Amino acid sequence: MNLKTLKDIETLMGKKVLIRVDFNVPMDDQGNVKNDKRIKFALPTIQYLLRQGISQLILMSHVGRPKNNEPNLRTDKIAVRLSELLGQKVTKVNDWGENGLPKDTIILLENLRFNPGEKSKDEEVKAAFGKQLASLADIYVNDAFSNSHRAHASMTEVPKHIPGYAGFGVEKEATALMAALKNPKHPMVAVIGGLKADKLGAIANLMKMADSVLVAGALAFTLLKSKGLDMGASKIDDEGLEEMKEVVQKVLKAKNVILPVDAVVADKFAEDAKSKTVAVDKVPSSWMALDLGPKTIKDYVARIKEAKTVLWFGPIGVFEMEQFAKGTAAIAKAIAGSKGLTIVGGGDSASAAEKLGVAEKITLVSTGGGASLEMIEGKEMPGLKVLQKS
User: Fold this and answer.
1) Residue 313: strand pairing partners
2) Is 38 known to be catalytic?
3) pTM of the model
4) Which of the following is catalytic: 347, 355, 361, 379?
5) Catalytic pick from 131, 196, 250, 268?
6) What is the mean pLDDT of residues 146-167?
């Protein structure tokens, strides 16, 4: 993927730059930022642009999934936090610059999803909003990899009117993922966890290139159930299985797709639950599988230690509860100890890596689980396609 990047711009001096960031941060009922990790992720690109002598930097982001322009999803408090991190004023405006913008150096627009044009299925409405946003600046920068699989106005329409480039965050994530997918060093191991069967598309593509695809989390128990095993009261994505019948059969036949042989089961979904280890074909009817068992962990860790490329998407077990976090801890530490290319994607996986203190030892902790998985599936990334060199 040959993206136009910031280093391809001859000069930024005196230019107005419109940057699409991902400030979709968790906020409380008063709109206060609870976790500023995503804001910090955009700082290298923001600070670089400011050092180049631009005349104005206009930031735009979506926040949450608003239905009625909820006050707690406004970008006011995000502007305050960004101002604190940059050490200079960030002016929040209550619209998207339809009537012009103040002359301040750094502007943050209102939540993009408050404007119906951002996600409109009416192409003319979406195109009009993108054109209006583009009119605010000379140059467009996408530093929101996590939203690059979405064909929203701020992602795909703006660069139709002004030159578009990838920010440092997008460049880093796209480059690392493409290296893992197009020319991986072997052995290549993918660890796929979580609940939803929608990850089966990624597994189906990965099993064509990976030496081992290690399935964990509720997804593993969902697949085991589809093989005819009784998973007791384990959480199963039955609806997803039904929708992806053909893919399920291909996945189950693949020799390099590895499923657990044992699991830690509990009598209830609680920290104080009674638990025990059983073979996957011996799950008691009223119990639920909440983590990998020791035999499976040993096998998975051994494969990861030998790997030169490792991808991890989706939680291994219920790592938020200490007695069901052993699988996650073992997998995370094994990946952190790898000397190869290591990529972790998805909110839960990233949170687990951070909680266990291993995030700094991983090549890339991706900001976008959904975007990364779609890239792994081989799907087109609309937000990146528009930034490719001709």
Assistant:
1) 192, 345
2) yes
3) 0.87
4) 347
5) 196
6) 97
